[in-house]
Amino acid sequence: MTVDAEVLTLSEVEALPAIVDLETARRALGIGRTTAYALARAGSFPCPVVRVGAAYRIPTVGLLRLLGIDHLIR
User: Fold this and answer.
1) Per-residue buried b or exposed e for 34-70, using 16+ beta carbons within 10 Å of the residue's own CB
2) Average pLDDT, integer, range 31-40
3) Fewest C-beta atoms under 10 Å: which of 2, 47, 63, 71?
């Protein structure tokens, strides 16, 4: 089995800060950049998104819940 170098590993996900950028969230989900931005713009990203000026930020707690690893929340 090969691992996509762009996709985050579980240990990398465990070390995420409280809020991440859209690029990091999409890597954790294994989706493409274009798809991630299109979903965020449409309000359809699969976890909560916070708009900060022109940037999209994703609270890590929502990302962990989506991934089914919210037991990592401290």
Assistant:
1) eebeebbeeeebebebeeeeeebbbbbebbbebbeee
2) 97
3) 2
**Helix or strand holding residue 50 (H, E):** strand 50-52
Domain count, the chain: 1
- How far is the C-alpha of 6 from the C-alpha of 64, rounded, in Å? 18
Q: Find where tokens 């976890």 sit.
A: 47
**Which domain covers residue 26, as residue numbers?**
10-72
Kindly report the CATH number assigned to the domain that includes residue 53. 1.10.10
The pLDDT, as a whole number, for residue 1 is 44
Q: Is residue 14 a part of any domain in this protein?
A: yes
Q: Looking at residue 68, what DSSP letter applies?
A: T
Mean pLDDT of the chain: 90
pLDDT at 2: 46
Dihedral class, residue 43 (left if φ above 0, else alpha if ψ from -120 to 50, else beta): left
